[in-house]
Specification:
- By secondary structure, this protein is α/β, with parallel strands linked by helices.
- It has 2 domains: 3-214, Rossmann fold (3-Layer(aba) Sandwich); 216-343, Hnrnp arginine n-methyltransferase1 (Distorted Sandwich), CATH 2.70.160.
- It is built from 9 helices and 15 strands.
- It has helices at residues 3-21, 27-45, 68-73, 78-98, 139-151, 194-201, 225-233, 255-264, 279-284; strands at 58-60, 63-65, 104-109, 130-136, 158-163, 179-182, 210-212, 215-223, 244-254, 273-276, 287-297, 300-302, 313-317, 326-332, 338-343.
- The strands form 4 sheets. Strands 5-4-3-6-7 form a 5-stranded parallel β-sheet, with helices on both faces. Strands 8, 9, 11, 12 and 13 form a 5-stranded antiparallel β-sheet that branches. It has a 3-stranded antiparallel β-sheet with strand order 10-14-15, with no helix packed on it.
- The structure holds S-adenosylmethionine.
- The site of S-adenosylmethionine has 24 residues, from strand 4.
């Protein structure tokens, strides 16, 4: 690409970044901006959409790493992209204040082919203010990522690109990292490696490093899907948004939870938690679900059902529970991570 095309790409990205960072959400504007961003990314990454590797996932012992096509699709999850990117921006600003002008180093794990969550933010900082370390396991994705970086002309922001598995990686300069950003997750923390990667990396970092997302919380609860449907179709009517009831928090992924866990245990063995479903909840709600709440950073939150990552995961219809009252759940890290569930 010529220098003038690169400059045009970057100036378009700067305007898109303004929409991502705006306090108010105008979904029409956000959709238009992110569609334009995706189109710039596709051109800049020079990714071969015909190659078989484009849609191939990589399967690791702690979960799967989605292929470049699927990683690119994440852009389209509007609120996810906005909240994660704005949360990362706020974390950078917070760290810049703390470091009083010294450069901030952000470790971005699983940037995918476009470094989606951070690339637009580069238009708001100078390379002497923000440096990136990128870790990506998929070689096809890394090749596309390198093209993206070159074609947006943002090489000066890149400290290092590491091709490797972040769930096993031992960082050489861990104390230099100020912020860890990763979104390798699905709702209910199933299938992907957010837990294994965060548990591997956080204990290597300084205790004051910022983790983005700050907290992911899984709860077992009940939902009235009829009331939910009524609320979704007529949100302005007088239907109350009380169709969810969280009963018990069953797993939390946060810096605090990790530091507590690693001070007592060297393995990724998590406790089994029991949750009781009351008779009145069986009668008043239609299903038992796992719900996911994400605090990306500070006020940037993704609440239940706000995006694909916080969709509820149905365990069972309450009318099928019969005599069953207790659900035992235990988060397991293996080739297919997630909550292992047992009813009694
Ligand atoms: C869900 S995509 C996210 C893409 C982009 N960060 C975004 O939010 O739009 C996850 C990315 O993480 C990468 N990934 C998954 N597991 C990984 C691991 N263990 N080490 C390094 N990268 C990994 C995948 O290859 C994929 O590109």
């Amino acid at each position: 690409m010529t220098d003038s095309t690169k400059a045009t790409f970057l100036s378009k990205l700067s305007k898109i970044s303004d929409t991502i960072l705006a306090n108010e959400i105008n979904f029409a504007d956000l959709s238009t901006s992110l569609t334009e961003m995706k189109s710039l990314f596709m051109k800049a990454s020079e990714i071969d959409v015909e190659s078989p590797e484009y849609i191939e996932d990589i399967h690791l012992t702690t979960g799967k790493a989605i292929g470049p096509h699927w990683a690119g699709l994440c852009v389209d999850d509007l609120l996810r992209t906005k909240r994660f990117s704005k949360g990362a921006f706020q974390a950078i600003e917070e760290m810049r204040k703390r470091k009083e002008g010294k450069p901030v180093t952000l470790l971005y794990v699983g940037p995918g082919p476009f470094a989606t969550l951070v690339l637009p933010l580069l238009t708001k900082f100078k390379p002497e203010e923000l440096q990136l370390v990128l870790v990506e396991v998929n070689p096809v994705t890394v090749a596309a990522l390198k093209n993206t970086i070159r074609n947006f002309g943002v090489e000066d922001y890149i400290k290092e690109i590491i091709m490797g598995d972040a769930s096993q990686l031992q960082l050489e300069n861990a104390s230099e990292i100020d912020i860890l950003l990763l979104e390798c997750l699905q709702f209910a923390l199933v299938k992907e490696q957010q837990v294994a990667i965060t548990y591997n990396l956080v204990p290597q970092l300084r205790k004051d490093a910022i983790l983005v997302p700050e907290e992911i919380k899984l709860s077992i609860g009940v939902i009235d899907s009829v009331k939910k449907m009524a609320y979704m179709t007529h949100p302005d009517d007088s239907v109350e948004a009380d169709f969810y009831k969280d009963i018990n928090t069953v797993f939390v992924l946060s810096k605090e939870a990790i530091w507590n866990h690693v001070s007592n245990s060297k393995t990724l063995d998590f406790p089994e938690i029991e949750t009781t479903i009351l008779e009145e909840d069986k009668n008043n709600f239609t299903s038992v679900v796992i719900s996911t709440d994400i605090c990306v950073h500070s006020n940037q939150k993704l609440l239940k059902d706000e995006c694909s990552l916080t969709m509820s995961f149905k365990l069972i219809d309450t009318n099928k529970l019969g005599e069953l009252t207790t659900v035992k759940s235990k988060y397991e890290v293996n080739e297919k991570p997630g909550l292992k569930i047992e009813w009694t």
